[in-house]
Amino acid sequence: MARTSSDIALKTREADEASVRRKARLDLFKFVPFRLNRLAAEVSSALSIEYQDRHGLDIPAWRVIATLGFRNDACSAQYIAQCTRTHKSTISRAVTTLLNEDLIERVENQADRREFRLQLTTKGRALYEKLFPQLLRREDEILACLSAQERKQLSTLLGKIEQSLDLIQTSKEADAKQAY
Questions:
Q1: Please, what is the Cα angle at 70 between 131 and 40, to 5 degrees?
Q2: Minimal CA–CA distance to 58: which of 72, 42, 47, 67?
Q3: For 2-6, 72-76, 87-91, which range has the lowest pLDDT when averaged over its residues?
Q4: CB count, 10 Å around CB of 113?
Q5: CB-CB contact of 70 with 136 (8 Å)
Q6: For the chain, what is the domain count?
């Protein structure tokens, strides 16, 4: 079978691309997903000092409390898992712990009696009200290396990325869709 010039050109291009792939390496320190993941892990760790060391809450438990704390009404564990991008089994374990510690409670879903929703107890609300100013202060410390203008730019840029990924960006939007 005779090879055409387009077959030869395709084989040559494929060989060239394979050669480049063998020589090139992905520089993780310039790869945005790696950088965002690393930053998220470090910031989460820095914030966890406020609730882990002082109140014995792990990161998933804090995520449950934080999600319930910013909402005006009860929500499902599935909503929390979607909102925080945390695996549902991890959220389920945190919910069990928080229920046992009387920080959250189950309430019946009026629309679907087979489902229960979660809300903060009085004790849980008091903990949330105590923690969130500390976390906002810690956030300010982390962002102190940025000017006010740079903070605005960072927020705008993150919003653009979130929008491009079709992520819900506001509590109002999340409440309207009843999902994250």
A1: 70
A2: 47
A3: 2-6
A4: 8
A5: no
A6: 1
Give the C-alpha distances (Å, rounded to integers) separating 71 from 93, 119, 175.
Answer: 21, 9, 8
- Domain assignment present for 72: yes
Amino acid at 15: A
Amino acid at the residue 76: S
Q: Does some domain include residue 161? A: no
Whole-model pTM: value is: 0.77
Q: pLDDT for 44-67, tens place per residue?
A: 888 888 888 888 999 999 999 999
Q: 77 with 88: CB under 8 angstroms?
A: yes
CATH number at residue 105: 1.10.10.10
Q: How far is CA 54 from CA 8, 50, 57, 63, 122, in A?
A: 67, 6, 8, 16, 19
Number of H helices, E strands in the chain: 9, 2
Tokens found for residue 83: 């909102």
d(CA 82, CA 63): 11
What is the C-alpha to C-alpha distance for residues 139 and 151, in angstroms, rounded to an integer? 11
Q: 130-149 pLDDT, tens per residue?
A: 999 999 999 999 999 999 99
